[in-house]
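Reminder to self: tokens first, then the designed residues, so the page reads top to bottom the way the pipeline ran.
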């Protein structure tokens, strides 16, 4: 068994406010996530896994001004004496940032002068920390401060990258680089919300989800999906249908549970529903999200292999109905942290790669970036990690979509949300608020827009006044009034509309 040890200062105090410590994990050189058991003894953290290769530790760490994001060390070898955790996290972040800056400079990016001072300060503090590791408390304190300056430098660099990339893309075309859309919940928007929606979005996702269409076996209810589609087409919105299947816990029709151990009949039922839904909307919906949460699962107790087989079969069925339809799947937790539970063999990239290699014609991947929730969703990451994750997925060579979610409240109950999903509200995380949600949109959206591979960005649901999964993640309050995050998305749409109109006038 492989063992790595890390020493921190004042762990009894940290541990009380640090529940994410026990969700730490180690990855190999190829990025594979190893199931990791975390133990605490005094001020020493012991991480155990089945292999003894070198690896990187990923752990949520409090960084002043940045919340409690997941941070990783550099690649470390196993050794008897413990590493100083804050020092190694600073080393890992500085190395990551240097690699990223080098790649951007090669690509022609101009590094802003404002980046240099915090980056040099991070280096200076790290050198000092590394030189006094015989004084663990002082070295860890310097390491934590070095890490903070590295985060400051990283945010400056990513914002400059996004700004320069967007300027270059606007020169080539005034049109928005990615469609901006939102998922519709299980109701039709009435007239009072129509103007709000169409002012902010150019696209909509119509959730033709099996559990809603066929809550009782043999009794399919298409009325809401029909009305939503009609509304989208009347408002000239780009339409994406689905997900047809959702493999998240309790997201399949309840009656299907009796067939979960009968693979042959289960596949037959899945294919029948998918074929019926796609054929029903033939000629109206040309883009289908066939499944969600296929990589993480939880529904019907299906194994990873079973889920992969059902997803492949469902994709094949859609292609048989119409081989010109665009088909995509949604991947949740795209960083792959769910592998640390030890119940999955395939990383999210490997799950999609297996489908691509099967030759069934997967058109795109939709990455769900949902932060601030447990047990589903991803742990918070900084903008450098977000950019690198998107670049890794872009290497697949197919278009990317992103579905975003984060909460606007961590204190109040949300009776219309999925009861199995909670907002992170412990002492380790800054309280989510409407202002924090808007700030997250402001930081994340430009990075997504700057990526050539990203062709569509969707918000998880429009209003908290309709049933939804992620609590407090809507853009409208339950009373129908817009939150600040909605205004941020609306201003983004207006900015592109202004550029497009100016370009049209110049051509005229």
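Designed residues (508 positions):
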């Amino acid at each position: 068994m492989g063992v790595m040890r890390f020493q921190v200062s004042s762990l009894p105090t940290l541990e009380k406010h640090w529940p994410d410590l026990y969700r730490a994990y180690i990855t190999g050189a190829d990025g594979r996530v190893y199931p990791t058991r975390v133990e605490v003894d005094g001020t020493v953290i012991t991480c155990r896994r089945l292999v003894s290769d070198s690896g990187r530790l990923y752990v949520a760490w409090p960084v002043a001004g940045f919340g409690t994001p997941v941070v990783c060390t550099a690649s470390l070898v196993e050794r008897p004496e413990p590493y100083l955790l804050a020092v190694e996290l600073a080393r890992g972040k500085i190395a990551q940032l240097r690699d990223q800056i080098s790649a951007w400079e090669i690509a022609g990016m101009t590094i802003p002068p404002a980046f240099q001072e915090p980056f040099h300060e991070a280096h200076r503090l790290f050198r000092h920390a590394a030189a006094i590791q015989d004084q663990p408390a002082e070295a860890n304190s310097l390491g934590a401060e070095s890490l903070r300056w590295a985060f400051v430098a990283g945010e400056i660099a990513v914002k400059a990258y996004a700004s320069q990339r967007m300027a270059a893309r606007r020169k080539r075309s005034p049109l928005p680089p990615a469609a901006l859309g939102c998922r519709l919940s299980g109701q039709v928007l009435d007239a009072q919300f129509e103007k709000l929606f169409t002012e902010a979005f150019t696209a909509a996702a119509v959730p033709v989800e099996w559990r809603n269409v066929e809550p009782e076996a043999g009794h399919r209810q298409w009325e809401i999906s029909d009305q939503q589609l009609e509304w989208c087409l009347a408002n000239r919105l780009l339409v994406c249908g689905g997900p047809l299947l959702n493999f998240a816990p309790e997201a399949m029709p309840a009656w299907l549970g009796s067939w979960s151990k009968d693979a042959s009949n289960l596949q037959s039922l899945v294919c029948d529903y998918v074929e019926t839904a796609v054929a029903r909307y033939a000629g109206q919906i040309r883009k289908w999200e066939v499944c969600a949460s296929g990589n993480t699962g939880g529904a019907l107790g299906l194994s990873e292999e079973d889920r992969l087989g059902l997803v492949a079969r469902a994709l094949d069925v859609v292609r048989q109905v119409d081989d010109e339809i665009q088909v995509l799947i949604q991947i949740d937790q795209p960083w792959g942290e769910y592998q640390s539970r030890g119940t999955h063999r395939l990383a999210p990239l490997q799950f999609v790669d297996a489908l691509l290699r099967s030759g069934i014609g997967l058109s795109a991947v939709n990455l769900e970036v949902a932060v601030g929730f447990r047990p589903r969703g991803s742990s918070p990451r900084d903008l450098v990690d977000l950019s690198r994750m998107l670049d890794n997925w872009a290497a697949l060579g197919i278009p990317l979509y992103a579905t975003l979610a984060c909460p606007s409240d961590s204190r109040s109950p949300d009776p219309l949300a999925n009861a199995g999903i909670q907002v992170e509200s412990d002492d380790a995380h800054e309280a989510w608020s409407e202002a924090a949600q808007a700030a997250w949109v402001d930081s994340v959206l430009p990075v997504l827009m700057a990526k050539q591979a990203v062709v569509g960005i969707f918000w998880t649901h429009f209003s908290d006044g309709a049933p939804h999964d992620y609590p407090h993640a809507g853009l409208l309050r339950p009373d129908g009034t817009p939150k600040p995050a909605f205004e941020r998305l609306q201003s983004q749409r207006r900015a592109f509309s202004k550029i497009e109109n100016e370009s049209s006038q110049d051509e005229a």
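DSSP finds 13 helices and 19 strands in the chain.
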